[in-house]
Structure to design on (186 residues):
């Protein structure tokens, strides 16, 4: 399995247990770790999916959606998945753009892990997909934590898209963030 490591050059606190984050393909054997965040209503609050209630549905999701996905990685701590990150490519005239998505087990929120994972994606995706010129992320206006992750990772907040989509039965305003292949990497 291909694995990418990211260890920050400078840690503000001089080092911590979360300084070494890796990305690798998510596998069916990761189901127990996947269920930790996939069953958590706090994690799925701003996601398009509802919390999983059984392993069979989660295994089908991994088998049918994750494994065939061109760029879906587990965010790992000590090689154990604690979240996931994906880049979905567009096609046709939009092939220059890809959409970033990520999720992290709630027990790891606020520790800089999501920011580190997003920085690692930004550092590698433009090389892996040379056609990509823009990586973008849509974040619910109420999801302040995710907005901070993207800002810390060097993404630019472009604006609010009002009444942009329906999420869990309610029309939602979304904030558009982007990172260009020509932007300086943080």
């Amino acid at each position: 399995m291909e694995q990418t490591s990211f260890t920050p050059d400078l840690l503000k606190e001089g080092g911590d247990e979360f300084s070494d984050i890796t990305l690798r393909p998510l596998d069916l054997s990761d189901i127990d770790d996947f269920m930790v965040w996939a069953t958590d209503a706090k994690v799925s609050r701003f996601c398009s999916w509802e919390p999983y209630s059984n392993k069979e549905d989660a295994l089908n999701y991994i088998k049918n959606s994750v494994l065939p996905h061109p760029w879906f990685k587990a965010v790992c701590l000590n090689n154990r998945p604690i979240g996931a990150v994906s880049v979905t490519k567009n096609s046709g005239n939009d092939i220059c753009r890809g959409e970033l998505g990520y999720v992290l087990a709630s027990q790891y929120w606020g520790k800089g892990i999501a920011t580190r994972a997003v920085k690692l994606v930004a550092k590698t995706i433009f090389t892996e997909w040379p056609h990509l010129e823009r990586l973008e992320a849509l974040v619910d206006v109420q999801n302040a934590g995710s907005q901070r992750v993207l800002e810390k990772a060097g993404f630019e907040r472009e604006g609010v898209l009002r009444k942009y989509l329906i999420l869990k039965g309610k029309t939602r305003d979304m904030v558009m963030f982007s990172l260009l292949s020509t932007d300086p990497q943080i």
